[in-house]
Amino acid sequence: MLKRIHVTVAVVILLLVSVIVALGSFGAFRLSREEVTGPLPIQTPTPTQTVTTTTTPSTTLPQTTSTPTQTPQPSPSSAPTNSPIQTQTPQISSNPTSQPTQSPTPLALIAYSDLTYGTDPAQKFDIYVPKNAATKMPLIIFVHGGAWIAGDKDDVSPIAVFIAQQGFVVINMNYRLLPTFSYPAPMEDIQMVLQWVNQNSQQCKIDVTRIGMSGHSAGGHLISLYALTQDKNYIVGGSTLPRVYTIAPMAGAFTLEGIDITSPNHENTIGAWLKTANPQSLGIPIDQIDSSDNASFLLLRGDQDVTSPPAQSILFYEALVAKGVPAELKIYPGRTHLTLISGIPNNDEVAKDLISFFNKNLK
Q1: What is the C-alpha separation between 226 and 219, in angstroms, rounded?
Q2: Cα-atom radius of gyration of the chain, to the nearest Å?
Q3: What is the per-residue pLDDT across 74-113, written as a single tens digit (0 to 9) for each?
Q4: Is-contact 155 340, C-beta < 8 A?
Q5: What pTM was computed for the model?
Q6: Per-residue pLDDT tens over the stretch 198-253
Q7: Alpha helix locations (H) across 205-309?
Q8: N or C: fewer beta carbons within 10 Å in the chain?
Q9: Domains of the chain
Q10: 195: helix, coil or strand?
């Protein structure tokens, strides 16, 4: 009798354990489904909640198969007839420095951090997608500054988040830096990011016919140079990638006018970056302007910028206008190289002008 009781108890315990394991497995399966269910099903990343920071797990997406070319060859192509750029009359306008104002109700975002677009550790980006986006949206690619030798996407993530909250998909990218990499490595990196965009536009709700770029300092230089030379094959097939039509460089370097690249202040930055450009003009935006360029520019500059003086933007603006390239120049009294962008997350005057430009040309 005692033996039967022991057997019965053992059977009951075994059944209970089986039920518990089954329930646990069901719970784990249900959690897994919740993790991969969302508006941005890009293979393996786990989305964050409404964006207030950019801390999401590192993720590796399929690597692009781009082959960088050290001697890029031009590959002419024409802009599509449905170019989103609206013709505008270039004019210089100076706006007074304003106090930050409350932003419009920001959109909730899905964020993915440190996605890879190449094999070098620097070739990573963060992407922000408005949550519950019903249709494809314009894309803004943001490029950080740092004198071509330093800087990181995290330095400007509040700006990237702010732009995304106004109804844009935003990619905030890192790129290869001096002293290891110089011209044309960042141009290759931009085309590799655009290749990733082309391959993942459906999942990311990106309209590849509506792409703009913005960047600060060295980033402003890089996006301007790319916009004016995007017909080149910086990578294999690069000239066939989606085109960038709307460019908003902030405190960028556009010309060597007044700059001695052999001086101690410049020989390890722009001087070193241009050493691999042959001829040197290949790496200078003002030397790459052509009347056939279809990009539209908004140049933003502080009048107290001593790092990259206002003359940089004024000369570039005049050269763009002379070649018939749509351009606007806005100079902000009292703003320095850094304070030009510091108020953007608080929707200051610079932010308003930036978003207005993107809305007008991309929406």
Answers
A1: 11
A2: 25
A3: 333 333 333 332 323 334 444 434 444 555 578 999 999 9
A4: no
A5: 0.76
A6: 999 999 999 999 999 999 999 999 999 999 999 999 999 999 999 999 999 999 99
A7: 218-229, 270-274
A8: N
A9: 92-362 (3.40.50.1820)
A10: helix
